[in-house]
Amino acid sequence: MTDLVGHFLIFTIVATVLLVVPLLVGRLVRPWLPTEEKDSIYECGEPTIGTSYIQFDLRFYVVALLFIIFDVEVAFFFPWALVFGGATQLMDPTLSAEARSGLTDKLLNLPSSGLAEPISAETAHTLALTGLCDILVFFGVLLVGFAYVWKRGDLDWVRAMVVHARQARTNSTSLLIPRGGSASGGPGGTTPRETAVVP
Amino acid sequence: MDATTILFWIFASISCAAAVAVVATQNVVRMAFWLIVSLGSVAGLYFLLSADFVAATQLLIYVGGTLVLLIFGVMLTATGPYSQIRTSPGEALLAGGVGSLFLAMIITTVVSVDWDSLAAIQQQDPSYASYAHEPGFNPAEEGNTARPLGLKMLGISLEDLGRTDGSLSHGYLLPFEIVSIHLLVVLIGASYLARAKRRSRPDQPS
What we know:
The complex is a heterodimer of chains A (199) and B (206). Chain A is mainly α. Chain A has helices at residues 2-29, 36-39, 59-90, 97-107, 121-151, 158-171, 191-197. The longest helix of chain A has 32 residues, at 59-90. Chain A is flat. Chain A starts with a helix and ends with a helix. Chain B has 206 residues and is mainly α. Chain B has a domain at 3-112: Four Helix Bundle (Hemerythrin (Met), subunit A) (Up-down Bundle). Chain B has helices spanning 3-24, 28-48, 52-77, 89-112, 115-124, 126-131, 146-153, 173-200. At the A-B interface, helix 1, helix 3, helix 5 and helix 6 of A face helix 1, helix 2, helix 3, helix 7 and helix 8 of B.
């Protein structure tokens, strides 16, 4: 536990020092000659138009949500990966008895004192197979959701542009987006729904 | 009072102070920042309590994920640079009441557990005492929790190792799969809601 406290202290000190020192050096060294251009908001060299507090498209929300779902999923992958990795290592029948014992202790979270009987290659094979099926079901269920979101067109960004272009085409003669753009739009099923939305 | 206890108190104070700041701040973006501080300190508390997997998950999901969602919520709803959230006295009273009730529930729960006897039981456990203090080794009780958790998710319990009577404790194979069903429900429900909202405002430029 002292280990942990030491790590916390090291990280805190390093983070604080690395933050404060450049700021302090900058304050001592830099000249102070403000001009109107320097004080203006910098956005990739372009002059800013309007406020940045606009309402964003709701599609961002679905993407963020997808990120969180798979974030949670990855968190569940970590303990599984540790066990699966240990089991696949133990599957090798040519392992020496010493290595097998060490890997067993590692997998079962024991100190290397031979407390547990070494796991045989067959047992490890069963364990790895169980783990594989387990994670395939886990991942498969989530892929159903991913496929649903994909199929329903929640991840499409192009179609909005296509619909927009189609709308612009009916209104005026200017047409910048080629017709071929609709090839990457969603498959048939959802397009009528979306076009019904945009009058 | 050793260093761990001091650090625990520091993290606990930071997380409480940041939580109060979340409530007291009126700007949504600043609230999100204070929430990062609070949740990050809670992750520190988890680390100090030897729950390293929970702590890492806290950082990964709450600090990394939920805050992203919150920022997106701000982006989707913000109407001005200094949008303030003002609560009416009635709302503050109601929220305070609910919060106090929850606090009372937590306090009674914590107080009703006899922590000293629990620690004594753990010390008397022969399988724990035999190897717990070997140098260079962290048992699950001292922060090596990911591997036992992974085994438990495959339906294997490490507590069964020392047992001779042949009885097995429950694994979490089914709950592990149910988690993915939950995530599926969340994904489909939220995307449906987002779509319904988009449909209800057809004049919104996309």
